[in-house]
Amino acid sequence: MTRIAIVAASEALRAALAAALRSDPAFEVVSVASSEAPEDVSPAADVVLVARSGGDSSAPARALRHDLANEVVPSNRERQILALLGEGLSNKQIAVRLGISTNTVKTHLELLFEKLGVSSRAEAVAAGVKRGLLLL
């Protein structure tokens, strides 16, 4: 089950999104917050859904868009390796599965760790889940 936090300026939009997500058993809504109070988002959320009305150009929404635009995104190969890390595979097993060398796996892991701001395999998997890059 994916835990979702909803952030939206409009109460009507927050309620509509929460109702739609609650109707699907694959999702659990863990918090609903206004875009003026994003600090109310639950740390238990796997995914944060940020929604805004077409005419909303509030400063918090602009700041959030700026943060998302500057976020470093892992490459497709790094995402593949992250998924295999989530399965608990070793570097050698990942290399065999992807048809690449173990040195290439190590290089991808170094880049992935840097992009996610982590220093271990477990932290990478946790960060991947938290950012919605990986579903376990």
Trace the largest sheet across and list its strands.
2-1-3
Total helices: the number is 6
Radius of gyration using CA atoms only: 18 Å
Characterize the biggest β-sheet: 3 strands, parallel
What structural class results from the helix and strand content?
Answer: alpha/beta
| Strand segment count | 3
- The average pLDDT is 80
Helical percentage: 40-55%
Beta-strand percent range: 5-15%
Order of helices and strands: EHEEHHHHH
List unreliable stretches of 5+ residues.
Answer: 64-69
How are the elements arranged and paired?
Layout: E1 2-8, H1 11-22, E2 27-33, E3 47-51, H2 59-69, H3 76-86, H4 91-98, H5 102-116, H6 121-130
Parallel strand pairs: 1-2, 1-3
